[in-house]
């Protein structure tokens, strides 16, 4: 179940986590991030504009647009319908995973404990989100999980920044990281696309 999400993670070291208020500028934002070297984008379904933003961004050349904050079956269906090519969730429920599988939407489901990681692995998810990364113990915890569960690779998200991303990316069980720092709300609001491209380029250059 994780081949596509593994490929999404392989595109760049960072998946921008985007909260979009204005669908009208979503394509510009996507172009700025893609131009900076971050093609995989997660649009969180937390704003009324999110689905329209996914529709706009899905047309941007070079972008690979996913929907985040998928909590329910309805979210999965709406994301798929809007053109999302992958889904992200802070956690998972059986119903959510069933819906993602029924709708053919590759998922990056969230795990916060070894039992969750084990359950997801059993269902075929060998790439998982580790959420919230910093709140759950960060690099030390992921490193510890890597000993008994080395076959799962993670996308830590939540509190990840340019400052700590490299220490996550250095772990063998980290595939990529997620973070909102590459698209600060004020820069999006003011349309500072060159500035966002610069932040993206910095993130894209992180070693792994
Ligand atoms: C989220 O789902 O909001 C992500 O965890 C983003 O977290 P961040 O703002 O700490 O990068």
List the SSEs and their pairings:
Elements: H1 3-11, E1 14-18, H2 26-36, E2 40-44, H3 50-57, E3 64-68, H4 73-82, E4 86-88, H5 94-102, E5 107-108, E6 110-111, H6 114-122, E7 127-130, H7 138-146, E8 153-156, H8 165-169, E9 177-179, H9 185-190, H10 193-204
Parallel strand pairs: 1-2, 1-9, 2-3, 3-4, 4-5, 6-7, 7-8
Helix pairs in contact: 2-3, 2-10
Oligomer description: single chain
Structural class: alpha/beta
- How is the biggest beta sheet arranged? 6 strands, parallel
> Can you list the strand order of the major beta sheet?
5-4-3-2-1-9
Shape: globular
- CATH class term: Alpha Beta
Question: How many helix segments?
Answer: 10
At the fold tier of CATH, the topology name is TIM Barrel
Description:
The chain has 208 residues and is an alpha/beta fold. It has one domain: Alpha-Beta Barrel (TIM Barrel). 42% of the residues lie in helices and 16% in strands. The strands form two sheets. A six-stranded parallel sheet has the order 5-4-3-2-1-9, with helices on both faces. Helix 2 (26-36) links the parallel strand 1 and strand 2. Residues 17, 132, 157-160, 179-181 line the site of 3-phosphoglyceric acid. It catalyses: 2-dehydro-3-deoxy-6-phospho-D-gluconate = D-glyceraldehyde 3-phosphate + pyruvate. Homotrimer. Pfam families: Aldolase. It comes from Rubellimicrobium roseum.
Describe the structure concisely.
With 208 residues, this protein is an alpha/beta fold.
């Amino acid at each position: 179940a994780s081949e596509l999400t593994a490929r999404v993670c392989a595109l760049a070291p960072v998946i921008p986590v985007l909260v979009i208020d204005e669908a009208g500028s979503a394509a510009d934002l996507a172009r700025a991030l893609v131009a900076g070297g971050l093609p995989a984008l997660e649009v969180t379904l937390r704003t009324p504009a999110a689905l329209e933003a996914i529709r706009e961004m899905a047309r941007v050349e070079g972008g690979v647009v996913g929907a985040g904050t998928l909590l329910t079956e309805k979210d999965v269906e709406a994301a798929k319908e809007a053109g999302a090519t992958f889904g992200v969730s802070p956690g998972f429920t059986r119903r959510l995973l069933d819906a993602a599988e029924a709708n053919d939407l590759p998922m990056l489901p969230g795990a916060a404990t070894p039992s969750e990681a084990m359950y997801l692995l059993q269902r075929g998810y060998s790439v998982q989100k580790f959420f919230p990364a910093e709140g759950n113990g960060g690099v030390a915890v992921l490193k510890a999980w890597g000993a008994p569960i080395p076959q799962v690779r993670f996308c830590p998200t939540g509190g990840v920044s340019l400052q700590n991303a490299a220490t996550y990316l250095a772990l063998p069980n980290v595939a990529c990281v997620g973070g909102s720092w590459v698209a600060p709300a004020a820069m999006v609001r003011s349309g500072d696309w060159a500035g966002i491209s610069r932040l993206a380029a910095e993130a894209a250059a992180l070693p792994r």
